[in-house]
Design goal:
Blueprint: H1 3-8, E1 16-18, H2 19-48, H3 50-72, H4 76-98, H5 115-136, E2 142-144, H6 147-169, H7 208-212, E3 238-240, H8 252-269, H9 275-280, E4 283-285, E5 293-298, H10 299-306, E6 319-325, E7 328-337, E8 355-357, E9 360-362, E10 368-371, E11 384-385, E12 391-395, H11 410-420
Antiparallel strand pairs: 1-2, 3-8, 4-5, 5-6, 6-7, 7-12, 9-10, 9-11
Length: 430
């Protein structure tokens, strides 16, 4: 017997361990790492859709339980179960990155690839390969006893390094990337309460420069969310709903929530690209028709909100905004309205801010009849002047700042609407 043979098949059985046991320990460590990643992102997925969060937790617990079982009571059926479960997760991952989500609020949307989710999938593929090897292999390979600690130890060290990188990088599904060509806000700019800006997001969560470069793809005609934008403008008589400036950089969860809001808002309002379809559904103009930009209100949807219905119901936005272009009226935005005192939900943090108007004269039905300004100190008969309820736009046209921008001048809205067009709908003027 050669020296190499004695290393693989030690003469003394007390000084050796089965190679299958060593491999099982390594697979258990890898399974624990995959479970940690799934636990880490379960909360993010619950915010996107409850079923996604449940799936992540179920997979995480199965991977953790399997790791314990394969070490304490290894059995062929456990190897088969480990291979099947992890292979299924890998298949689902591939489908969501190629075909798109099969269920949830964004069906058919292809998920982006990130380091964390890629690492998790590689670990699961290794588990599948290891389980299959142990199931089909009939070799009784013996290894020196010190391998029982050395091999799992080396595996654990490598996994800890990779897992740390994945979690610091944001983990799977959290790959809202920064774009160097996004408009950058001046690093020295600060927002002051009541100034009407409230859009410079510096401080917690990142520097002004890093936050200003955020670019979140939405897959909607509104393009990427790129707030804060140096080009953002507030119209006269318009200010933020909160007197406290929103200065916190959006978290990864808030970034994802803002993208989901943009996507679901577009799916909910796309059926109203035709102005006639909106009118048939009960939307009526509350700002002068024929103006460059016209707002429409659905009284039933607004009353539903007053009765306690959800404020951010993307299936029935309280208001729609149309821009008059040479092609006719183009759907420019959905506008959500929060009854006074009901709060202003901000799923996207400072990416989803609310504003109010302080200079409008409105009728009892909310129709704008005039504006208080230097030329008009009082409202027309039959209308009154008061601060409007809080409002938030989700834009479907590419204005600076993207879908969750606070506002834009009418001329800018019209130009952006001309780029999108009416989607083949034969709309007259709004």
């Amino acid at each position: 017997m050669t020296n190499s043979d004695s290393a693989v098949h030690p003469a003394d059985p007390d000084q050796s361990v089965p190679g299958r046991k060593v491999l099982g320990y390594c697979l258990a460590i890898i399974s624990v790492a995959a479970a940690v990643i799934h636990f880490a992102v379960a909360g993010e997925h619950f915010q996107e859709y409850w079923l996604f969060g449940v799936f992540m937790l179920v997979v995480a617990w199965l991977q953790l339980a399997w790791a314990v079982a394969i070490v304490t009571r290894p059995a062929p059926w456990l190897l088969g179960a480990g291979a099947i479960v992890n292979a299924g997760v890998v298949v689902i991952y591939i489908l969501t990155r190629t075909v798109g989500d099969m269920v949830g609020p964004t069906p058919h949307d292809v998920e982006p690839f990130g380091f964390g989710d890629g690492l998790c999938t590689v670990l699961e593929a290794i588990i599948v390969a290891g389980c299959c090897y142990l199931l089909v292999s009939r070799k009784d390979l013996r290894l020196p006893r010190e391998h029982l600690l050395a091999a799992p130890g080396a595996t654990a060290g490598a996994v800890v390094v990779l897992l740390s990188i994945a979690l610091v990088a944001g983990g799977p599904e959290m790959v809202m990337s920064a774009s160097s060509d996004a408009p950058a806000a001046p690093a020295t700019s600060t927002a002051t309460a009541g100034s009407g800006s409230g859009m410079q997001m510096s401080g917690t969560g990142g520097t002004a420069a890093s936050v200003a470069s955020v670019s979140l793809p939405t897959g909607t005609p509104g393009g990427n969310i790129t707030m804060p934008s140096a080009n953002m403008q507030m119209m006269p008589g318009m200010k933020m709903a909160s007197s406290v400036a929103c200065t916190a950089a959006p978290t990864k969860a808030q970034q994802q929530a803002a993208v989901i809001l943009a996507k679901t808002s577009w799916r909910g309002a796309e059926k109203f690209r035709s102005l006639s379809a909106a009118q048939a559904a009960g939307y009526f103009p509350i700002t002068p028709t024929g103006a460059p930009v016209v707002h429409y209100l659905n009284l039933k949807y607004y009353v539903d909100t007053l009765k306690g219905g959800p404020i951010l119901d993307t299936t029935q936005p309280q208001s729609l905004v149309y821009a008059n272009t040479p092609e006719g009226a183009v759907l420019a935005a959905a506008m959500y309205i929060s009854p006074e005192g009901d709060g202003t939900p901000q799923p996207g943090g400072c990416l989803t801010q609310w504003h109010v108007h302080t200079n409008l004269c409105t009728s009892s039905l909310g129709v704008v009849t005039g504006v208080i300004d230097a030329n008009n100190a009082t409202c027309p008969a039959g209308s009154s002047h008061h601060v409007t309820p809080p409002m938030m736009h989700v834009w479907f046209i590419p204005i600076p700042g993207g879908p969750t921008a606070i506002d834009a001048p009418d001329a800018q809205v019209v130009r952006a609407a001309e780029q999108v067009g009416s989607g083949g709908n034969k709309n007259g003027p709004a």
